[in-house]
Design goal:
Layout (H helix, E strand, L loop, with lengths): L1 H17 L11 E4 L5 E5 L8 E6 L4 E7 L6 E6 L2 E6 L3 E4 L10 H4 L1 E4 L5 E4 L4 E5 L4 E8 L3 E6 L5 E7 L4 E2 L2 E3 L3 H14 L9 H5 L1 E4 L14 E5 L7 E4 L4 E4 L16 E8 L4 E8 L6 E4 L4 E6 L2 E10 L11 H31 L1
Antiparallel strand pairs: 1-4, 1-7, 2-3, 4-5, 5-6, 8-9, 8-15, 9-10, 10-11, 11-12, 12-13, 13-14, 14-15, 16-20, 17-18, 17-24, 18-19, 20-21, 21-22, 22-23, 23-24
């Protein structure tokens, strides 16, 4: 009986030693690599001294998770691409789905990213990154968590994790350089830069008009706005026509305005506080008060604003080619003046010749 008992104990011990690394989590869990080197070694046993059987690459590569190693709790028992072995916990992440980071690859992350705060993030395919702007660090990037990317500086303790938004093509608040979001961010920056510094402007001046077209020609510092302006974007039909006496403004995402429908109006330049942007601006307002044209006197740019977005305009022609309703263009006045001068000279010559002929008689 004692011999049977001893045999049972031996068999049990052998069984326990043999299942020391079997799954405790089932077949529903998965593991993916997020190592800074771009891959994780798969080893024969749960130790760095063990032989390397293969590698688990970063990106859209998920391994089946068999469980934590009883032999070493810092290792996972996995199965990947025909290889069963062990990976270090510190180099991998867990996921309930094999589709983890399915579209997040080094090729997707590779490139230049920018945000609205003036920072530029550059990532290469080898897990290196450079961050410049308000933050200046270099280091390594790696995927961490389901759709997270972690940036870790090489020479300091700086570390930051961002969520990767594949749908909007973003890393945290960073847009891919040159993307539609990046262009929108640039427009937002331009709108902020167009704001007026009111520290040296009195409250009464802020509430008064800068200029009213009923009172004569526009001030010299705003002469550059005279003329015709069209949308920068090809999918819009914004139009502004500004003369010394009258102006017309039209903002639309649909049909272009018919020239026969243009009705020029008197206008004024004044300061306007934009509640949504929390900033002061110089604007042009027609008598109808819609739409309002924003003026950036520093960059000589006009734009419409809607929901915090700027729709900028391109100067098509200057005031010298534009005829105000009820008035002649500058070019016409110059032509008239030149003709008058020529006519005066001719009349003078004729009178001179007539006088000389008479005196000869």
């Amino acid at each position: 009986m004692k011999n049977i008992y001893r045999i049972f104990i031996c068999v049990a011990m052998l069984a326990l030693s043999g299942i020391g690394n079997v799954s405790v989590a089932g077949w529903y869990d998965y593991v993916y690599s997020n190592a800074y080197d771009g891959y994780t070694n798969i080893r024969q046993r749960p130790t760095t001294k063990s032989a390397i059987l293969g590698t688990l690459p970063n990106g859209n590569n998920a391994a089946e998770f068999y469980g934590e190693s009883y032999e070493n709790a810092n290792w996972y028992h996995i199965y990947y691409n025909g290889i069963e072995g062990y990976v270090a916990k510190s180099q991998v992440g867990r996921s309930p789905s094999p589709a983890v980071n399915l579209n997040i690859t080094t090729n997707w992350i590779y490139g230049v990213w920018v945000n609205g705060e003036g920072n530029t993030l550059t990532c290469d395919k080898k897990g290196n990154f450079t961050l410049s702007g308000n933050i200046n660090v270099v280091g390594k990037w790696r995927l961490t968590g389901g759709n997270d990317i972690t940036l870790k500086a090489t020479y300091s303790g700086w570390k930051q994790t961002y969520y990767i938004d594949l749908y909007n093509n973003m890393i945290g608040d960073y847009y891919r350089q040159g993307s539609a979001q990046d262009l929108e961010a640039q427009l937002a920056t331009r709108i902020n830069n167009a704001a007026v510094d009111t520290s040296n402007i009195s409250e009464s001046d802020l509430n008064n008009e800068i200029h009213n077209s009923r009172n004569g020609n526009i001030p010299s510092e705003y002469q550059w706005i005279l003329g015709e302006w069209h949308s920068e974007s090809t999918d819009r039909n914004d139009l502004i026509i500004i003369g010394n006496n009258k102006a017309f403004a039209y903002m639309s995402e649909s049909e272009a305005i018919m020239r026969d429908d243009i009705d020029m109006e008197k206008y004024c330049l004044r300061y306007k506080f934009n509640i949504a942007l929390n900033k002061w601006y110089v604007v042009l307002v027609t008598e109808e008060d819609m739409p309002i044209v924003y003026i950036d006197n520093s960059t000589k740019q006009l734009f419409f604003e809607s929901n915090g977005e700027g729709y900028y305009l391109t100067h098509i022609q200057g005031s010298e080619n534009h005829v105000d309703e009820g008035g002649l263009s500058l070019t016409m006045w110059i032509i008239i003046a030149a003709c008058s001068c020529v006519l005066s000279v001719l009349i003078g010559v004729i009178i001179f010749l007539a006088t000389k002929v008479k005196s000869n008689k």
